[in-house]
Each structure stands twice: as structure tokens, then as C-alpha cells.
């Protein structure tokens, strides 16, 4: 059974760091991190396709890094210099679309999801 399991969320102060991990058990071309604030739409944050094709939304560029560890079967999101506006539930998701880096902000382009992990940034 295909599964995605996120971990690594927590509470940090502004300027802090967190590393999220998503454990997967199937091969997939495209993986992404999304986040959702209660009452708002889920938004794509970062995507990794193939070996190293990545894209980020502007608000996290230079602060977040998406990567995959093929030995551990994890998709990671290193988050540095966290801001209160980064507070959200974070989800990992996968897609088989070859153009996923162009549509990574659209959650309907992704067909498998994890259960989410909460990130809270507050002083």
C-alpha cells in the first residue's frame, strides 16, 4: 500500500529552523511539499522532480530547501529563518505528471498525500 508519512513538525521561535521529512514506500517522479492554514486553500511550497529539478514559491526562496534521500526513502524540507507566516499544516504529496514543476502550486495536480505535520512559528 502506497504511503506517505510526514514528521518533524513542531513549535519554534521566529528565526528558528525545522526539518520536515516525508517517508515514502513507492517510486515516484515528482514530490512536493504543500502547506495549509486553517480556513485557507492548500498551497504548494516546493517541488522536486526527477533527480534535482526544484522550484519554490517566492516567499520561501533562500530559506527552504527541498531534497530527497534515496537511501532512506525520505523527502526532506529544510526550513531556515522561519517566520510567523510559515505557520501551517505541512503535507507532502506525489504526482506522476511530467510537468509537475509547472503546476506544483495546484494541489489538484497531486494524487497522493500524507497526513500532515504542524509547524508553528511564534514568539
Rounded mean pLDDT is 95
The DSSP helix count reads 0
Count of extended strands: 11
* Unreliable spans: none
Strand proportion, as a percent range, falls in: over 45%
Overall helicity: under 10%
| SSE order | EEEEEEEEEEE
Largest sheet: 7 strands, mixed
Distance between the termini: 40 Å
Nearest-angstrom radius of gyration? Answer: 13 Å
What would you call the structural class? Answer: mainly beta
Shape annotation: globular
Task: Summarize it.
This protein is mostly beta strands.
Describe it.
This protein is globular. Strands 2, 4, 5, 6, 9, 10 and 11 form a seven-stranded mixed beta sheet that branches. The protein has a four-stranded antiparallel beta sheet with strand order 1-3-8-7, with no helix packed on it. The protein has no helices and eleven strands. It is mainly beta and about 120 residues long.
Layout of secondary structure:
Blueprint: E1 4-7, E2 10-12, E3 18-24, E4 30-36, E5 43-49, E6 53-56, E7 64-69, E8 74-79, E9 88-95, E10 112-113, E11 117-121
Parallel strand pairs: 2-11
Antiparallel strand pairs: 1-3, 3-8, 4-5, 4-9, 5-6, 7-8, 9-10, 9-11
Descriptive keywords:
123 residues; mainly beta; seven-stranded mixed beta sheet; four-stranded antiparallel beta sheet
Amino acid at each position: 500500500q502506497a504511503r506517505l508519512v510526514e514528521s518533524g513538525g513542531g513549535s519554534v521561535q521566529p528565526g528558528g529552523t525545522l526539518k520536515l521529512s516525508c517517508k515514502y514506500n513507492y517510486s515516484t517522479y515528482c514530490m512536493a511539499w504543500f502547506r495549509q492554514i486553517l480556513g485557507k486553500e492548500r498551497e504548494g511550497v516546493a517541488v522536486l522532480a526527477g533527480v534535482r529539478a526544484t522550484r519554490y514559491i517566492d516567499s520561501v526562496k533562500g530559506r527552504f530547501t527541498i531534497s530527497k534521500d534515496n537511501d532512506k526513502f525520505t523527502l526532506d524540507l529544510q526550513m531556515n529563518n522561519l517566520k510567523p507566516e510559515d505557520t501551517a499544516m505541512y503535507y507532502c504529496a506525489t504526482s506522476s505528471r511530467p510537468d509537475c514543476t509547472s503546476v506544483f502550486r495546484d494541489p489538484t495536480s497531486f494524487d497522493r498525500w500524507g497526513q500532515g505535520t504542524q509547524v508553528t512559528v511564534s514568539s
